[in-house]
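Researcher: Going back to the complex we discussed earlier. I've cleaned up the inputs and rechecked each line, so this should be the final set. Can you rerun the prediction on the complete assembly and write out the structure?
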Amino acid sequence: MTAAKRQTRSGAPRIVLRLYVAGESPNSLLARLRLDMVCRELNEPWQLDVVDVLKRPNQSVIVTPTLVRLRPKPEVRMVGSLSDREALRRVLLSTGTTS
Amino acid sequence: MRNARKEVVARAVSRVIQRPTGIVGLDQLLRGGLPEGRTTLVAGGPGCGKTLLALETLVHGARDHDEPGIFVALEEGAEHVIANAATLGWNLPQLQKKRLFFLDARLPSSVIHDGAFDLQALLAGLDERCRTMGARRVVFDGINELLLLLNDPAAERREMYRLSEWLTNRKLTGIVTCKIDHRSGFSSERDSYLQYLSDCVVFLEHRPTGAVPLRRLRILKCRGIHHQTSEVPFAITGNGLDVAAPPLPATLGPQATTERISAGVARLDTMLLGGYYRGASILLSGAPGTAKSTLAAAFAAAAARRKERTLYVTFDETPDRVIRNMRSVNIDLAKHVRSGALRIVAGYRATRSAIDDVAWIVAEAGRHRARCLVVDPLTALVSGGGALIGEEAATHLLRFAQANGITLLSTSLLSGVDALGEATSIGISTLADTWIHLSYVARAGERNRALTIVKSRGVGHSNQVRELVLSNKGIALADVFFADGDVLMGTLRWQKENEARLVHDQQRRDHARLAHDAAAEVAETKTSLARLTQELKRQEAALQDLVASSERTLQSGRRTTATIAKMRAGDAPAGMHRAGTSSHRRLA
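Model: Rerun complete. Updated structure for the full complex:
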């Protein structure tokens, strides 16, 4: 597991994310970059794990990159290089139905 | 870079290793099997059997060739696929323990798509799975779904290429199933790259023809393998796919034997110089009621008596009725059924395609390990999809029988009574080795059955007609009677035979009489001869006497003359001068 970005305050952050990437492939790099940018624009802490499936294959992940929003519930999955910033923001911030 | 290029060239030049699919007929079309380390595309419309074909390849690989496999379900869920295949008797749960793995790789509908993605995660996961399982075959079922999501032709191509490369690098035998509109085929640009990318493309089609569905398969291409290109029908049976591929010449079964087996009627065996050839195909044709089934049953009974396993397939009757009908001509089929040598099965008519029927017959024959096979009537196949399909199916059945050394006897319905000029309705007569035609001859208020051997390959046969007589004692063949250039049967025959017998008797008597007369003459002549011989002897004796007495007379005359001369001592008669001189001297 590569380094996780944390912003420690009191307790765990509201937003917990896991990004599955395939090494340094273009889509994966783009996704990481974009996710990073959008997350920084949030006014709250977030937790992100980046998992490289080439090193740690995961049976439930079919395509890369796959972003899983573990918190807040319910769990939401997004696939792709996250080119639509607005959609990504909505997903990160939404608390109920999927967008 | 140079090394990579060298490797590519080397790969291209090396011989393609083929992995058998285990599907009946498909390996024949491929002349071995699917190419290892390459992508095979199985394309077709919905419901045409792509998933089944792919799955069956995995099953056979896992079960029969020690090649575990992974089924990646991209469209239809894994449980669904397993449930559908449950009726096929593959025992998937058993295989799933170690040799077969189902991966449900569908993206749930709740997943949000945002941007481009690739299949590396899937392949990474499969990598690990392949390592632990030792998998050699991988199926990607329903690739369209995934590619559709990419929504980018360039990306589609890239991912398909990635998949293909992955399979090659790991030397796996890969099958990708893909939905294709059967009407347009691969014409759409979107889909045509799939065809170019794959090394082997199998195209399946499912065409409803009237009430009966028709399934066809064709190998569009297979790089590196000299495959058969014809489009062939196939059926989905209780065991999987059954592809009706024409057999390769080298595999046409055992060499032609010269063994003969009984046709069930002694005189027919004689006409055939011993019987039917083992492993030959025999056709009995004729109008309804001409006793084709009876002859077929006689053949089956004879085979069963020889303790050879025989399968009797009937499309017209139930097995019980067949047994009952044959009992009336003294053929006891029930006994053979009980002993297990004979099995009678009834087929359906017209509810499924001819090739399905044939696949079923083949399966039954295999199950019974039949050496002899009767199909009554074979023309039932015509109703399942039309004449052309029926002919294909019949040919397939014939080839199956030939390849396995099974003697096949089929009956064929002909619509006309004068049928020697007609071809049989499914053209099978050119393929059969022996063709016997049964017909009615109607005359003088009677109908009698005639049997003709129309042709018999490799067998010298009498080209004459015989009358087929059925009675409660069994089947018999009787000579027909020729009179005035006509063939007579039945009571007319009996009449004529009677007449002939009378004439013959009369002739015999005449001969006897003549012989008697001649003998009498001979005796008479002999007597005359004896008498005349006697006469001859007598006359000869008389002649002798006459000759002898005249001799004596002459002799005594001479003596008398000589004596007188002596007594006179005088002048000897002139003739005696010299002789007399000496005697004269003596006297002086």
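Model: Worth noting: Confidence is low (pLDDT under 50) at residues 1-9 of chain A.
Researcher: Good, that matches what I expected from the previous run.
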